[in-house]
Amino acid sequence: MKKVNQLFVSRFLHNQIKVIVLLGLSIFVSATATSQNVKGGKKISPDLFGLFFEDINYSADGGLYAELVQNRSFEYSPTDRPEWNPFSFWEYITPGFSYGSISVETKTPVHPNNPHYVVLNIEHVGDGGGVGIKNYGFDGMVIRAGDKYNLSLFVSQLTPEPVSISVSLQNRKGKLLAENLFSTSATGWKKYTASLIAKESNDSATLVIMATTKGKLALDVVSLFPEKTFRHRQNGMRADLAQLLADMKPKFIRFPGGCLAHGDGLGNMYRWKNTIGPIEERVEQKNIWNYHQTVGLGYFEYFQFCEDIGAKPVPILPAGVSCQNSGGTWRIGGTGQKAIPMKEMPDYIQEVLDLIEWANAPATSTWGAKRVAAGHSAPFNLQYIGIGNEDKITPEFEERFKMIYTAVKAKHPEITVIGTVGPGQDGDDFTKGWKFANQLNLPVVDEHYYCAPEWFMGNLHRYDTYARNATQVYLGEYASWGNKMSNAITEAAYLISLERNGDVVKMASYAPLLAKKGFTQWTTDMIYFDNVKIFPSVNYYVQKMFSTNQGDLYFDKIISKEAKDSTLAASCLNDSKTGDIILKLVNVGKEPKTMKINLSDFKNIISGAEKTVLTGNADAENTFENSTSLVPQVSTYKVSSKFEYSVPAMSLTVLRIKTKSN
Fold first, then answer.
1. How far separated are the first and last CA of the chain, in Å rounded?
2. How far apart are CA 373 and CA 377, in angstroms?
3. Is the separation of the CB atoms in 616 and 630 below 8 Å?
4. How far apart are the C-alpha atoms of 446 and 518, rounded to whole Å?
5. Pairing between strand 642-647 and 593-598?
6. Which residue among 85, 482, 555, 631 sits deepest, i.e. has the most Cβ atoms within 10 Å of its Cβ?
7. DSSP string, 339-401
8. Distance CA 309, CA 304 (A)
9. Residue 648, exposed/middle/buried by CB under 10 A (0-12, 13-18, 19+)?
10. Strand ranges of the sheet holding 99-105, from the earlier edge strand across to the other edge
C-alpha cells in the first residue's frame, strides 16, 4: 500500500489538488471533503455497474452465440489448434453402399473473406443412402421436441443436372428427428433455407446433409439456429444465457475484450469492420485463447444486444498495438507487443472514426447507411469508446494512443474516450499509464486487477484518496480468485467502496463473464454453463444484487456500526428516478453483527421494504452438481425512521425502501 499511496500523492500534486489522507476510516463511512449532507446526497455515476464480455472459455461460439454448427464455413485450421483442419467436427458419410469423394477447395469461394468450401462428388447412390457430411456441433446439438430450427447453407451446383438434397437432424445412432428435402436449382453459389421441426428432444443431435442423386456440388456456410433465440433475433443469442445477463439490468456492456481486442499479433487484432455484414462475408480468425472465432457474434449483434437489454455499448478498440502477450510471451514477462506501422496509422484512425459514424450517423452517411442496411435505421447512440486494453505503456503505445485520442476528440467531442493504465493494480505500467493519462487529461481510464480476497479487504479505501474532478476510473476487469461464498461477499464489500467513491469510479465490471464446462482457459468466472444448463456462481448473485439496485445519490452517515469492526461494510443510495432508498449491508465475518440505520431525514418512507439476502458457509459455492444451493432469498421487512438490523454472518443484504412520493 505504501507504493500505491505514493503514486496517488504524486498524481494529486500533478493536478494541484490538496490531499487529505484519512486514517482509520470505518469501511462504510465516506468522510472525504466532497461528501454532502444527508439531505442532498453526493452525486455518483449512474453507469456504475455493468458487464464485460470477452470470447474466452467458449463464451461466444458454442456459448452465447446460438449457432449450433461448429466449423460452419470450413475455416478451422492448425493456426487455431495444431490438430484442427477445415474438416474438423465434420464427418464424411456414404450410407447405403453409396460412394463418391470429398475435398476442401478454395478456387471459387462464396466470398474472398471466406475462402474454404467443401466439394462433394456423388458417384453412386445406394438404396436409401447418399453421399454427405455430418456435423456434431459443439459437443452435440441440443434440440427440443416441437421447436423449429432454421437451416441455411450455400450450395453451388457443379454439374448440369440438379442434385436432390436431404437435410436432417439425427441422434447419435442415426434415428431421424427432423428432415427437409430440396433440390439445387442453378449452377453457381445460391443460398438455400429450410426449417426443421424436432419430433423429439435430444441433447446430442447431429446435422446431416446428404446428396441423394448423382452429381457434384459445393457446400459452404452451413448454419443452424433455434428459432427461439433471445428476442427471436436472426443470427441471435442463446435465449437462456442472454436472459440471465438481461436480468442483471447492466448499465453498460464492454466488448469484445479483453486481450481478444488487441489480439495475438497485428494480424490477429479484432477489426470491427470484419465483423459486420452477412456472415459469409465476415473474416474468421484464430481466437487468442486458442480456439476459433467466427465473429458471427460481431459488432452489429453486440450493439443490438446492448439495446435489447437497455445497456450502453462500450466497444474496445486496439490502441494501434497488439497484446504484449502475443506469441505466448506472458510466460516470459510479456514482450510481444507489436505496433501498427506509422504509415498505416491514418487508415487505422479512420477505422476508429468510421465506427462512430456507423453507430451514430444517419442513413445519409456512408457508414450509417451500412447500419441501416443491416436492419437498424435509428442510431445506436454510442457514448463511450475504449482505446486499448491493459497495454504495456511503451513509447509506441503512447504515440499511437495520442494520435487516436486527438482525432476522436477533435471530430467527436461528444464521445467519452476510455484509456488504459496497464494490466495490474500497481507496478510500472500502472504508474506510467496514470502519468500519461494525466498529461492528456483523459476523461476515464480503465484499471484491471485480479487479486486474492485479502487484497480486496485490504484496499477498501483505494479510491478514497483519488483526486476528485480529475480523470475518472473504469474498473473494467476484476475478481477475487475464487467462486466461494467468501470470495463473493468480499467482492460485495469492495463494491460498497465503489459506491462510496462513485464520484470517481464511473464504471465497474466483473470478469470473465462466461465459462463453458470443459472448455475454460480461466478458472474464476461469473457464470458457468454447458449445452443444456446454466450455473450462476455466487459471485453472479452479488453482481446482480448490486446492478439491479443502483442509485445516483450516495448518502453518508446513515448506517453505523462498531468503529473498529473491519468485517462490516454498508452504503445508502437513492435512485432519484424512482425515489427508492437502497441500503446494502455486508458482513464478511463469522458471526451475525448489528448495524443501526437512521433514516430520519428521509420523508414519507413506506415501512414494508423488500429484503434480499445472500448468505452461506464461507467455503460453499455453486457447482455443476449443485447449481442452485446458494441463491438470494427475497422477503419483506418492516423498517422505520430508526431501526437496527442484524446482518447474518458471511452475507450481503439489500433493503429497497419505497417512499409515498413514488
1. 44
2. 8
3. yes
4. 31
5. antiparallel
6. 555
7. B--GGGHHHHHHHHHHHHHHHHS-TTSHHHHHHHHTT--S-----EEEE-SS----HHHHHHH
8. 9
9. middle
10. 99-105, 117-124, 215-226, 148-157, 188-197
Cβ-based neighbours of 548, under 8 Å, separated by 6 or more? 247, 248, 249
| d(C-alpha 119, C-alpha 109), whole Å | 11
Domain 90-226 has CATH 2.60.120.260: yes
Give the pLDDT score at 15: 37
Q: Give the pLDDT score at 89.
A: 98
Q: What architecture does CATH give domain 52-62+231-549?
A: Alpha-Beta Barrel (3.20)
Residue type, 619: D
List, for residues 39-61, the tens digit of each pLDDT value.
679 999 999 999 999 999 999 99
* The residue to which cell 457434384 is assigned: 216
132 DSSP β-pair partners:
93, 210
Alpha-helical (H) ranges within 501-646 are 538-547
β-partners of residue 448 are 477
pLDDT score for 24: 31
- What is the mean pLDDT of the segment spanning 184-195? 94
Phi-psi region of 608 (alpha: psi -120 to 50; beta: other; left: phi over 0): beta
Tens of pLDDT along 344-359? 999 999 999 999 999 9
Fill in the DSSP letter of residue 86. Answer: T
Q: Which residue has the cell 462464396?
A: 110
370-380 pLDDT, tens digit per residue, is 999 999 999 99
Q: Look up residue 49 and give its amino acid.
A: F
Specify the amino acid at residue 494.
Answer: Y
Q: Catalytic residue positions?
A: 390
pTM of the shown model: 0.92
- How far is Cα 535 from Cα 2, in angstroms, rounded to an integer? 40
Residue 215: HSE in the Cβ half-sphere, 13 Å Cα cutoff:
23
Cβ proximity of 70 and 89 under 8 Å:
yes
Per-residue pLDDT of 331-340, as tens digits, reads 556 678 999 9
Calculate the average pLDDT of the chain. 92
Q: Are 629 and 619 in contact (CB under 8 A)?
A: no
- What is the amino acid identity at position 290? N
